[in-house]
């Protein structure tokens, strides 16, 4: 994909009498191009509050520019968290069979339920929530967790207050800005004035100090965390649920990387008693099933979760889904069912183990160089510390000198400064080559 910098343009609308087009002469617009007719529709003021470009397209743009500069360098991509290993045949065969059946009278199906195929909803509830009481009717199948976050933002609207982990996945903040929850951006601290940033760094074991956290309506919380790779403990999540209950808040809990957890950390917020009264959980097939391009996820909205007036949140979310979403592709849902079959799930866990083997190799490389590495045990991300350095400078140095793409921690919020995120997604030979290049750079 090619990327180019878009020059700023100023729209010069025609007058009602269609007078000749003019250009702005103000010095403010000296470096801007005038264009022709504009509508009278104003730009959404919230879009104007967004800062620069979205992080991952920005990384892709810099990657493209580097590839143009060094076409023979053999770029290694450990930045954007895209899976690399093929989807197991048992899963793709199920999708292919379903797709072929659509060409027959007997197998053709049109619209399905907006909430998802009930067989898949039951399989998700049984596979991931067997012991915590989540029912199939509380599971909403979707086209991915990130899309569901935006639908949840639409559900909550502009008049709620929001807290996020710092650092955190940028989609939580950007969607809060777009929907009108954020207030203005503050250059002096790199934060939006109406968003509460919960510091989650090495100083506090990557979990916020809730005793000093302001009350908000919504708390976005990701575990295992993207970007730090840290999975919250059971005791920490108990504190979070108690905090939400005491403040009348709703937790939007992102468990997209739960399948990577290898210790006793909870894989779902609903493992915590009382969580069904204060939490919504979003999750995804993207990272554990390699569905980043196939697109399938789900959201759990418990029946016990109520608004201030006692109205069930699940009823409003169902209305959002029915109004704004026509349901996930039936072909993809067939693949999702195959993922959760006994043989399909076993095959996927083998791929998860492969990626975590990659994480160990990368962690060993940075550790051997004296760098402190976090994550990489319960998630496919490593959070590497470079004390006193700008994260964008670290990113640029590694890219320029080793031809390895990472992600600057600052892109995940002010708390990400001095860090880079390194993805363990990749083919093993490329991971080994990246390890060699890094050791040569910092030896």
TrEMBL record:
<dbReference type="InterPro" id="IPR019942">
    <property type="entry name" value="DapL/ALD1"/>
</dbReference>
<dbReference type="InterPro" id="IPR004839">
    <property type="entry name" value="Aminotransferase_I/II_large"/>
</dbReference>
<keyword id="KW-0663">Pyridoxal phosphate</keyword>
<dbReference type="GO" id="GO:0009862">
    <property type="term" value="P:systemic acquired resistance, salicylic acid mediated signaling pathway"/>
</dbReference>
<feature type="domain" description="Aminotransferase class I/classII large">
    <location>
        <begin position="75"/>
        <end position="437"/>
    </location>
</feature>
<comment type="similarity">
    <text>Belongs to the class-I pyridoxal-phosphate-dependent aminotransferase family. LL-diaminopimelate aminotransferase subfamily.</text>
</comment>
<keyword id="KW-0808">Transferase</keyword>
<dbReference type="Pfam" id="PF00155">
    <property type="entry name" value="Aminotran_1_2"/>
</dbReference>
<protein>
    <recommendedName>
        <fullName>Aminotransferase class I/classII large domain-containing protein</fullName>
    </recommendedName>
</protein>
<dbReference type="GO" id="GO:0008483">
    <property type="term" value="F:transaminase activity"/>
</dbReference>
<dbReference type="GO" id="GO:0030170">
    <property type="term" value="F:pyridoxal phosphate binding"/>
</dbReference>
<keyword id="KW-0032">Aminotransferase</keyword>
């Amino acid at each position: 994909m090619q990327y180019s910098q878009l020059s700023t343009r100023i729209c010069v609308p025609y007058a009602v009498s269609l007078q000749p087009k003019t250009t702005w002469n103000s010095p403010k617009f000296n470096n801007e191009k005038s264009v022709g007719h504009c509508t009278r529709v104003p730009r959404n003021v919230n879009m104007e509050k967004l800062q620069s470009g979205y992080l991952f397209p920005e990384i892709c743009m810099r990657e493209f520019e580097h590839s143009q500069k060094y076409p023979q360098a053999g770029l290694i991509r450990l930045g954007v968290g895209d899976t690399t290993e093929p989807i197991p045949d048992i899963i793709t065969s199920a999708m292919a069979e379903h797709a072929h059946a659509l060409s027959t009278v007997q197998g053709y199906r049109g619209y399905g339920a907006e909430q998802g195929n009930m067989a898949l909803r039951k399989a998700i509830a049984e596979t991931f929530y067997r012991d915590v009481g989540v029912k199939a009717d509380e599971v909403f199948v979707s086209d991915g967790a990130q899309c569901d976050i935006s639908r949840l933002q639409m559900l909550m609207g502009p008049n709620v207050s929001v807290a996020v982990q710092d650092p955190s996945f940028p989609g939580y903040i950007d969607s809060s800005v777009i929907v009108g929850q954020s207030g203005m951006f503050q250059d002096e601290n790199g934060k939006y004035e109406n968003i509460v940033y919960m510091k989650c760094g090495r100083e506090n074991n990557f979990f916020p100090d809730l005793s000093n956290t302001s009350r908000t309506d919504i708390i976005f919380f990701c575990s295992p965390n993207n970007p730090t790779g840290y999975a919250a403990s059971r005791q920490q999540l108990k504190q979070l649920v108690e905090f939400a209950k005491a403040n009348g808040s709703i937790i939007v809990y992102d468990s997209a990387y739960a399948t990577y957890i290898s210790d006793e950390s909870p894989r779902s917020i609903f493992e915590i008693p009382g969580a069904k009264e204060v939490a919504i959980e979003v999750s995804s097939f993207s990272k554990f099933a390699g569905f980043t391009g196939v697109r399938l996820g789900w959201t759990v909205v418990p029946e016990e979760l109520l608004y201030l007036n006692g109205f069930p949140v699940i009823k409003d979310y169902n209305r959002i889904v029915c109004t704004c979403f026509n349901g996930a592709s039936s072909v993809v849902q067939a693949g999702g069912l195959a993922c959760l079959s006994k043989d399909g799930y076993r095959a996927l866990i083998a791929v998860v183990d492969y990626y975590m083997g990659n994480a160990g190799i990368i962690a060993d490389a940075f550790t051997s160089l004296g760098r402190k590495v976090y994550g990489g045990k319960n998630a496919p991300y490593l959070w590497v510390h470079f004390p006193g350095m700008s994260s964008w400078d670290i990113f640029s140095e590694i890219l320029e000198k080793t031809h390895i793409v990472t992600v600057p921690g600052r892109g995940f919020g002010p708390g990400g400064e001095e860090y880079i995120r390194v993805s363990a997604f990749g083919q093993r030979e490329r991971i080994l080559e990246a390890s060699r290049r890094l050791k040569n750079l910092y030896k």
